[in-house]
Amino acid sequence: MHDPREFLRFAESLALKITDETQVRVCIGRAYYAAHLSAREKVRPHYPGLFLQNDGCKGEHDIVREKLVDLDRADIADQLVGLSQARVRADYFLSSYPSSEWEVEIKYAISTCKSILKSIEEVQ
């Protein structure tokens, strides 16, 4: 099974050599998916069968956040919402990111992802 944290490692390595807006967008997306998929896998044992029919569907992202709230980890769910919003901006809003914002956006995505990954380890 692929370790979703590998997406963060990829985002971090890409962040060291950003030369264009596409790379910024990819970096943000990979940081989000490292966090989302790690959270999903941590939540999955608490809700057997829940994700069997929902893997990859639009509602899965909301379900993961809802189940984190059910597990008294609204803090993680809130961070996922913020990171998800950054990913949506990167994936769907094609107006240019000013290059002056690239570093800020990447730092936010990577640091938020790291925070989520650290917190997700505490979920029992």
What does this structure look like?
Helix content is 69%, strand content 0%. The protein is built from five helices and no strands.
List the main descriptive attributes of the protein structure presented here.
5 helices, 124 residues, elongated
Secondary-structure map:
Layout: H1 5-15, H2 21-43, H3 60-70, H4 74-92, H5 99-120
Estimate the helix proportion, in percent.
55-70%
Q: Output the number of helix runs.
A: 5
Indicate how many domains the architecture comprises: 1
Query: What is the highest CATH level, the class?
Result: Mainly Alpha
Q: Give a short account of the largest sheet.
A: none
Q: Termini separation (Å)? A: 21 Å
Structural class: mainly alpha
* Nearest-integer average pLDDT: 91
Q: In the CATH hierarchy, what is the architecture at level 2?
A: Up-down Bundle
Contiguous low-pLDDT stretches (5 residues minimum) are: none
Order of helices and strands: HHHHH
Summary?
This protein is mainly α and 124 residues long. The chain contains 5 helices and no strands.
